Amino acid sequence: MQLPYTLLLSLLPLARAHFLLNSPPTIGFSDDDEGDYPCGSFDASSRTTVTNFPSGGIPISLTSTHPQVTYFYRVALLNDTNAWVDLHQPIAQVGQGKFCSQDVPGLAAWEGQDAVLQIAASAPDGWLFQCSAVKFVSGAATGPGSDCTNASSIKVSYVDEKLILNAQTTTIISGSSQPTQSVAGGSSTTQPASSSSTMGTPGAAASTQVGGLAILGTIIGTIGFFFF
Ligand SMILES: [Cu+2]
Q: Where is the composition biased (Polar residues) (predicted)?
């Protein structure tokens, strides 16, 4: 069967990309070099497009082309882009396609400061990075944009893990506060440990963080949600 040329074109980005940061705007995307810490081979200090990041939150829209991926949401001050701070609990996505967190809260303590948002993704083929230039500001959530949508086939769940990943080290600390892996270089190809068995408690806190997404059901044996 031959696919129409236009359809083939529309499939190309999904077929090739590891993952995409749709919103806020990425500093840069290179499929071949997305594994290069800290920003997928692009300059972390680039300020070409700066997104105001109110304490109330912004939507963060991602597209995964992998059957599973874990996203870590991190920020660093512009003058220290090797010191990353968790912005949001990591999220494991099963299934390919778009996932959008509608209101990821900003950091009130950093209001007025220039910073870099980094999405570090643990994918089957290794760590991948996308960054966005942001400035923390006061104010209410900006609300979801038109690209803040979710693929119907995905399911996502929170992961109770803390990632320490910089130019010197890559370590994941699970909910039990025990390091589960430690490798040098920030380019490990290992997966985070037991994302399904180390999740935090379900309920209001989790659903509030993602905010506005409909919860359809609970994943058997673990704590998770279906989003659409
Ligand atoms: Cu990939």
A: 175-186
